[in-house]
Amino acid sequence: MGERSVDQASIKMLKKAAQEGIETAWERYEKQQPQCGFGLLGICCRNCNMGPCRIDPFGDGPEEGICGATADTIAARNLLRMIAAGAAAHSDHGRDIVTTLWETAAGEAQGYQIKDEGKLRSLAAEFGIPVEGRSKEEIARDLAREAMEEFGMVKGALKFLERAPQKRREVWQKAGIVPRGIDREIVECMHRTHMGVDNDYVNLVLHGVRTGLSDGWGGSMFATEFSDILFGTPEPVRGRSNLGVLKEDQVNIIVHGHEPTLSEMIVLAARDEELLAAAREKGAAGINICGMCCTGNEILMRHGVPVAGNFLQQELAVVTGAVDAMVVDVQCVMPALTGVAGCYHTKIISTSPKARFEGAEHIPFDEHHALDTARKIVQIAVDNYPRRKKEFVRIPEEEMEYMAGFSVEAVLKALGGSLNPLLDAIKAGQIKGIAAVVGCNNPKIPHDRGHLLLTEKLIKSDVLVVQTGCAAIACAKAGLLLPEAAAQAGPGLGAVCRALGIPPVLHMGSCVDISRILVTAAAIANALGVDISDLPVAGAAPEWMSEKAVSIGAYVVGSGVFTVLGSIPPVLGGKKLTELLTEGARSVLGASFAVETDPEKAVDLILEHIAARRKALGLEG
Ligand code: XCC
Ligand code: SF4
Hints:
This protein is of the alpha/beta class and 621 residues long. 48% of the residues lie in helices and 10% in strands.
């Protein structure tokens, strides 16, 4: 099973699954082989019912669809639809948080509070909302209203774009890709990719970048900032990770999905004395809430809640036989879960009206009765505890401590209040640059291997690594999110980490929190008076799989950051499109993509890029 994962706990559970005849994503992946070549290359189209059409990649067959669309048009349209779906997912999440703040301010949401009033007031000031002598509820309502307008097209350009360096904003102006409204750009993607609308691959890609920007500097940024207002801005916190966090003698509840509105309430409900007493009555020593994927990241960032694993471990968690309930909301939840759960005693509880699963118990979650609903869910898990099939329970012992919680505010605090120590270290070459290693797992790549190889080599080369998402969970499990990991860093980065007491790999949150990375990059660029594309920074998504990752890629490159992808995007069938993404984009955006499936070579690309940027800035080494 070593070829499937580099994570020992996962390898053990893969073996257990095999013994017990449970199929996982890896078996299903094998059954899909060989995967459709047209799909892999991005050159099949079913955007209208004259089709489906396919382009022959070898040039022996059709070179265009029935309507005349070429390989580049088809692949670009498909890419745009991926971006639209990804941006929609992030932004709809953002919208839900904005709505929750609005309802909280109106006194209509149960269990929520405005936890970070300071952030509320500073954001209100950013949006030009009067704060003097007003209650936090009054301010929050106005701010939420302002945010809601950003989803439409009332204002002409997104407010948060003003956080970007002047030079970057000029790049967007010049390219004609300033995002107007968050929803608007997504809708326009769907319009442009309809049969017979936008057929120019360059024009399509430019709008894709605009849509991505409306995610990164819009929907995702709202998700992050408003979550901080509601649940608190993260500060450094310690916790534990990997499947070993499950407890044999406790009621284990895994919260899986993305939105903190649900997971925060489950965390709160699990502290309820009555429910704890109920758990003891059933013979359990307590209630153990653990996270998975990005909702796990949300609660580990703010509470140090244990995280059971990342994307490819969701089925394996159920295979432990020790999960009494897995509570899911939206995104990255495999439909296969209910089938796996059916072989054990685990209850899969869906909660979002947007996401139902055949075979799951559906407990609709809404903000008005959030805490009551959370209690009900915890009660179901407690009642399920005695149904555990003891003979099938096996929890791997692997667990690892992590330090997380590096919001922009926390990073500044760790630096003593200003960016200067970091800038000085970069200027002096102690830290060569910063790399964001983010994204998913993908059975096409040994689980976690890409994340770990890349991150280990980068820190060894004195590159500070910032992370979010499943990449961060991979590194948490490997012990890289600990100050002690400074020993694995190069001499320069290691010394800086030891002086500040921080890990060489900073966990900045869930995937919507890549907005925190954008804000940090913008602040560094502003401090140096340059564009983001001038900085010695790079992005990498070694194991990405989701459409959200495509939207992220679009806005990261659109923000001027060179980005290396470790799994191949479905565009290679469009030769001119591929050339645009990997070369041509540089002349317009100051950044481009690279595709490199070998992590060692990916590191080299990043180091070369960082060295070139240092040289251009006149920095030594
Ligand atoms: Fe999903 Fe966010 Fe990817 Fe992980 S990293 S597989 S998107 S949970 Ni966001
Ligand atoms: Fe074929 Fe064109 Fe219709 Fe796509 S839009 S299915 S290429 S005819």
